[in-house]
Amino acid sequence: MPSHILLSFALVALAMSLTPGPNMLYLVSRSVCQGRRAGYISLLGVALGFVFYILCTVLGISVLLLSVPLAYEGLRLAGALYLLWLAWQAVRPGGSSPFALRSLPPDSPRKLFLMGLLTNLLNPKAAVLYLSLLPQFIDPARGGVLTQSLTLGGVQILISLLVNGSMITAAGTVSTFLAQRPGFALVQRWLMGSVLGVLAVRMLLVDRR
Fold first, then answer.
1. Which residues, in sequence order, are CB contacts of 186 under 8 Å at separation 6+?
2. How many angstroms separate the CA atoms of 62 and 26, rounded?
3. Which of 98, 124, 169, 174 could anchor a disulfide with 29, C-beta 3.0 to 4.6 Å?
């Protein structure tokens, strides 16, 4: 593929990766709670979720998902309910913010990986993203559509790994900052609960096109 096409797609993918969403919130909160290693393992699960959606898009399954209202709506509802549950965990009496440093029994690498995968799979926006974005950068005249799709998908995953990996690395600094300022706990809880709640509501109200 021409370098200018790859660069244009990379810039779009970078802009989307820098936009806070469920994946970023989960990865940062997991890193704060259990350390960077847990965040990196969770990130691998998130990456596998992207691979799944890319392959679905390439094989045409995403078209079926979006053309069957119940399939799309069911996945969207599950993702929104999951975010609402996370929001409640943040604001419930005795709860704590996802960014608050707290003592937790460490989860196994397998569980961390599966939780990262689940967080991504429950976000149907990924299917919409690939289905609407990839065709704009693919030209059958340049060769195999499958190869071009996988190339662009690989670029997006790489950028997502770099951006979220940087967020995970910075999460250690965030946790230290918060540990030294316990008075911020209540503000953190309601701030994060509000953000998660807004994301859930937006997912429920988004217009299906």
1. none
2. 25
3. 98
